[in-house]
## 1
Amino acid sequence: MPDSLGTKPPPFVGQVSMKEVARLAGVSPMTVSRALSTPHLVKPETLEQVQSVIRAVGYVPNRVAGSLSSRRTSLVGLIVPSLRNALYAETIQGISDVLQRHGLHLMISDSGYCLEREEALISAYLAQRPCGLILHNTVHTEAARQMLQGAGVPCVETGNLAPHPVDMTVSYSNRAAGRAMAEHLVSRGYQRFGFASLRIGDNERLRERRDGFFEGLRAAGIAIDPAMVLEVGEGLESGSQAFAELIGRDASVQALFLAGDVLAAGAIFECARRGLRVPQDIAIAGSDDNDLMQQMIPPITTVRFPRYRIGVRSAELIVGRLGDETLQPASEDLGFEVVPRGST
Amino acid sequence: MPDSLGTKPPPFVGQVSMKEVARLAGVSPMTVSRALSTPHLVKPETLEQVQSVIRAVGYVPNRVAGSLSSRRTSLVGLIVPSLRNALYAETIQGISDVLQRHGLHLMISDSGYCLEREEALISAYLAQRPCGLILHNTVHTEAARQMLQGAGVPCVETGNLAPHPVDMTVSYSNRAAGRAMAEHLVSRGYQRFGFASLRIGDNERLRERRDGFFEGLRAAGIAIDPAMVLEVGEGLESGSQAFAELIGRDASVQALFLAGDVLAAGAIFECARRGLRVPQDIAIAGSDDNDLMQQMIPPITTVRFPRYRIGVRSAELIVGRLGDETLQPASEDLGFEVVPRGST
DNA sequence: TTGTAAGCGTTATCAG
DNA sequence: CTGATAACGCTTACAA
């Protein structure tokens, strides 16, 4: 996969090695190593001496060598479906905040919602011997599962409650969220529903959310017309289109659940353009709360997921495992919240 | 900085080493190495033999060892001011897309808009011996500059046209963008202006955009009242507040340039709530185009920056340098575009 | 508190 | 086309 990037004498930072620092400081390399990793075990004067040489020559330790020797890197790998999506940004920030506090570094890639690409990435990441792996996905290829299981690297799956986690999970239940939204809408008295989401494909999270929604409706004795179920692309524009399509198919529809991305906001914009009143003429609910949902006119009823917290807990589980390898596989359900607003 | 994460016998993926694979395949480790990196240099039958052992035992090469030996990693470091911000997401995606194509991996952190934290991150990243570094920032501490210069690692600065790049730059001119927006608004006939941005602090990009705006107004013989210049927090809500504050200070203001984040959209929402007509009662312009700006009612005039392209070109410059170390420092201006819409 | 010795698992190099 | 050998720059383990 990696194409060759030239084979000339490669660039390298280390003009100065630990050995050289040691020589200049008149100590052994081991003492320099200690001065860096366990300064309290070095005599103050020696420490001072070493540190001054380090500063003088601008020595930057080589973690590649260090990692090989100690058999431990400071890299945590993260694979998300998409980097563009603001959705994942919150989680990434949570992960990053925790890792940074612990001197760990985040390696990140996107699978483009493709399981085969995820598999390739997992393999490439394992080659870097990361000290942890976080996957925003709970469905993997068989090969990927095997690699993960065999690797013995702490691994957190997130984005959905995984029934059979490879190792650890931190998430919320998309199915329950969908159900809860159905219950909310039913409780408001709506009877005729429409549903749109991003393309589901391999996306277990969306599938669950949708199925949960249908389940909730069924529980209330309501069936949704298959013609009123849509998959569309990303972006506000798609939300507008989804709205147009659904209302075109059944003008008497009373409530739409537009699950994912900012589809619901796009629908509200479309309503405004058409002069439709929300929720009097039609109710609209979304998922993934953010300040746009809150600021829209009317503000949009959504399901809120604790995305930042999920990032934080995912990273914390990795860090915890590093500190204590006997920690058992954990599965955390961080829940969700239906936020009722003016749009329903 | 890294706090100790336990010192027990560390976890490791490599149940199987190259040596072991070699033994099982009845060849030397070097042949296994070649089978992996330069398969065309290995006799087909030997290759087949080695590959089948690799599959059988699930061997995952250890890139840490490989990197140490070859003195070359496949890691590119990226430091952005914030991971949350959708702004950077586009650029990150561009970088990631290119790196992935070349078998490189992205290490990412956020500096939280803090130069000292950026410095610490640069140092930590250099310790990983990355094959490239991308900084979404052009102003650094003196120590950071020195490290970067001494490191000899390909480095791209972005986010603003750097007058004195450490190595390479890929960007657009925030100053020119500010000026262009001033010219646009002046050309529409507005005379009394207000300006709000996120907190500027060490953020050279925002400072330049603001100064460019003032410069453009001055060039048209227009002065902006210092009381009509504001700094606010992030988010739509802040945009609403900025609007409220500015209009409160001078009800006769005709046009607002809300530079940064989604401030302009927040202002438009506030107008809607107050029943003000845009642009008849007041014109509003923003920066950083995205589909929200486009979908708002009215759609918002903005400056559009080629954020995805910037990511792509940044990564390409790194990759290019890896392939040919004699490539000279490049500085690319990818420009920007004022997108006139209904809000002005 | 410091030092010595022995790797860590690859790849560069050169010989065959 | 294949192999032997010597690094790569650090840390672990043990000794002094």
## 2
Amino acid sequence: MRRSKYLLNTLKETPKEAVVISHQLMLRTCMIKQLASGIYTYMPFAVRSIRKIERIIRQELDRVGCIELLMPSVQPADLWNESGRWKNYGKELLRMKDRKENEFCYGPTHEEVVTDVVRRELRSYKELPLNLYQIQTKFRDEVRPRFGLMRGREFIMKDAYSFDVDEETCDASYWLMYEAYKRIFSRCGLNFRPVEADSGLIGGDYTHEFHVLANSGEDEILSCNQCDYAANVERCEVRQPAAFSGPELDKPRRVATPDAKTIEEVSNLLGVQPSQCVKALLYKTENEPVLAFIRGDRTLNETALRNALGVPELELLNEGDAREVGLVPGFVGPINAPDGLSLWVDPEVLAIEASVVGANAPDAHFTHVHPSHFANYQVTSLRQAFAGDPCPRCDEGVLASWRGIEVGQVFKLKTKYSESMNASYLDEQGHSKPMVMGCYGIGVTRTMAAAIEQNHDDAGIIWPVQIAPFHVTLLSLDVGSDEVDGAAETVYQALTDRGVEVLYDDTKGRPGFKFKDADLLGIPIQLVFGKRSLNQGLVDLKMRGTGEKRSVALAECVDETIAALRQQGWEHH
RNA sequence: CGGGGAGUAGCGCAGCCUGGUAGCGCACCUGCUUUGGGAGCAGGGAGUCGCAGGUUCAAAUCCUGUCUCCCCGACCA
């Protein structure tokens, strides 16, 4: 591609709305143009990278037997009523009406449509397993779109859906996809981790997210430094201590703690460690208030509490709400708690020999509280794991914390949709059974953004060669000189003939400008053609990633370039 | 949805307080000089000042309403 005929207007200055690096660089390199909040045009330079990511996805999914199809973006409300999601999905679902006032939505995901396809087409166990996928634009009306392509409303997604006869073969389909995902993200040149994630209410035993490691990631993930355990912090398991089993040495003592409402104030006033205090948090489910207790120096994991209660929603209550259920804000504890509250206690709390708890009375706490003084409670792991915790799986490991960008998820749906939408097959005995489903997503455009988040420096993008919009950029410093033009044209043609994608900067710019621009664009290899070197029969080859530069003979430069590309993992297709 | 900020040329911004011919830098076009790390000079094109209403002889500027965008938080199959 000749730069003079391409659409690629780079910016020297960073538009002010961009705060994360991928967003800034994508704007500066003319990759995206915003049309509305969370809605972008993918410009030519970006589309080239998107197509490469898609190509890798297609190859790896086809390899494990997935079959590509393409479903409609606009979906009738009827289908969503069958699954129950027309009511439940909420405002993220973009709804609309056609001219006949029939209701439709723009697809945020395609469980309903794919289940409908399969229930019409499949009858027999002999046709299973089946895994259908598509790559398509999705729309989710996010509450707060942000960070460019990292959290857009419209985005390109690969979604796949597996159909199996039972849970066992569904597991096999799941792990096949898990391995395919590892190959996909590896081939994209990304540093990533598959992590255990929360499966919510329908998910069942496990689900994994694939995270690209980057400081700007919105998720915290924890991984073991010894074994391969890794989990989203909201799902991360905690090694729990045994309850303190020694005898009660003393009765709880009621002490005056005027105005000491926070853990910090109480521990300072009484001269005890925060880890000896008990923190109480009041939540509300749809039906009932719930009181949770964790150690004073810990953070509560709301996902853990939600799962323990088996509820989809949980709301943290404020002081006013606390008074309504008979609590004294700041002095809440497990002893003499008002009736009608369900009490949940983290195991760590019960490992404290003598703890400090609120007295459920104004300006008072109990000290010397022994585990046996807790009454009418249930024990469940409630605290959030953090870096430095021992690994929950192996004996030697310690957890380390990372920021991650979620680029993919594999998920077991089981029979949620096949039952509600009646997608069934006949087994060998002629019995009708619901298919067991899995779903598997990859955010294509988010993957591209994550790649930039992970691969850049002060000068600009550093594309992994596998997903780079071009493999090589050829800079002509003396456009108009017959010698330079001739050499550049010849090499441009030769590289192109050998399957190398070249961005040929044949514009009449000054050298400094071209160098800066090439660094900004981040194409893996720069080939520099200028009189100064060419007079000695040389061209200059620079590796964008390492900054390494060397001069090579004009006659050798095509082979040298291809060798350097191969070294970075380039494969000619 | 709560809190904060911003809409003036493609991008970055000034002008608004104190109403009176809409400006600067980058980018773009023309010419000359320059040419190995974002050149210099000269000339030029480009803006319904987010939108609507009001006050006024006169509104980018004052008043009211409204829309959009960004950031923090809540939320995120």
